[in-house]
Model the fold of this input.
Amino acid sequence: MRGGRFLLLGVVALIALMPLFAPWSKTFLVLAIAKGLAVLGIVVLLRAGQVSFGHALFFAASAYVAAFAARLLGGGELLTLLVIGALGSGVLGLLVGLFVVRYRYIFFGMLNLAFSMVFYAVLEKFYHYTGGSDGLILSRPSVLGIGLERLPFEYTLFYVALATAAVLGWLVHRYLNSAPGRALAAIKTNETRLEYLGISARGTLLVAYVISAMLAGVGGTLAAVMQGLVTPEYAYWVRSGEFVFIAILGGAGHVLGAFAGALVYEGVRMYLAVLAADMWQLLLGVVLLVIVLFASEGLVGLWHRISGRFAPAGREAS
Amino acid sequence: MSQALIEARDLHIEFGGVKAADGVDLSVHESDHLAIIGPNGAGKTTFLNICTGYLRPKSGTVRFDGTEITGRSPRWITRRGIARAFQIPQLFLEHTVIENMLIGAAARDRVRSLWRPLSASTARDEMMELLELMGVADVAAQVVTALPEGQRKLIDIALALALKPRVLLMDEPTSGVSSQEKFQVMDTLLRVLAHQQVTAVFVEHDMEMVERYAERVAVWDAGRIRIEGTPAEVLADAGVQRDVIGL
Done:
């Protein structure tokens, strides 16, 4: 257990230092963290056995909310935009959640997809407000009242993203291990019993859904601020599928898996796009096939298996 | 006689023309151990389903401690003090036994346990004690799917008791338990019920159990209460012996 924690700290430290030695990695890492947060939202819902195929809705909604807020506030403040983005997606999550938590499994997944595609169409068609397919430009916000140049801003954004991911990851870990988190997992196996314990299965799932939407929202805002541009592509179904893909790759159900999956996915995608521009999707598909066939618990499960093999006899791997 | 805790009046419900309750009046009193017996399909479990909000009667009312609970949700009714154990155990299969119990304790203590990790729950000792009383403490760390049906049954009852209910409704509490163990299980169960001052209603097919553990017996036949009284009175009735017991 302790060894695992040290290793985790080591990996986080390595990631924290990486942009200092490889400045090009800032953008890649911020985008990976942003997607990791959205995937964390998927992981929360997976605890209840529910898969959302439309979580890009919240990723995009928060990005647009942040873009509108930045316009209204004359550029805005980074932390304010993150909070506004999260709250915006949280409110939307509550509204959508009130409807979708009544459904389970494929209906739950497809309803989420439907909502995200409706939102995508709205973003495309309401050109005067959303900029249509051109999207909205999000100018660089200030940080604690200081307007930064591009390079220092990107470094700052990276460390804000890293700290946000660490704090939210820890909070989600706490939540999943708390009584409401365990009740959420119980939805998967026995919803009837949950009701007969006096716990509302729908209420439990709704809370998880709003949390999940807010996580995707923080991710969406980070991505939007990093890229400086928000387009309807943020809400497109491919993006939602990408989140589910990463969740499986990382290890469905694991907090760390969300970020590990996002880092590997973005890394593989980035290199494959350079080395095999025409077939990177095909190769990513092969990677997922291998994971599903040989490591069904994803990267985190694979890590547990490997560390278990090398753990001293008589001790369980953490 | 003490005041009625559950009071069902003129209950009517039918399924596809078959009357499961046809004007049923039945009262459960504080500290009662009421057994409901009757032929298969007579409507015994329907009574439990109505009392716990799973079914809404076509007409009639159910009151719990003076408050009407007819048609209320299982969640609402459970929170007011009626717990249920099932004929087929209803547990959280991916969780360990103690986790199941701690979810039950958290449901009971709602606000207090909102943020604390379940593994650090203050109710752990209390739940272990309850498992000890039910004789299943030794499997507390095991995942439920790994356990035999008899033990799951006991844990299902323990989970209902974790809520500290005023009334426990049980559907054949010893079905699935071996014939050697069933008396031991019921002895244990009644001791726990007495310890927690829980009123009990149980649907039962085993007349030996009824004779030994019920204080009152109601015979449910074709949607009606045919006869009600002490086990000695009811089981001595010639009609009951012929139609229900099969002598």
Observations:
- The first strand of chain B starts at residue 4 and ends at 15.
- Chain B touches chain A through 32 residues (CB under 8 Å).
- Chain B is about 35% helix and 25% strand.
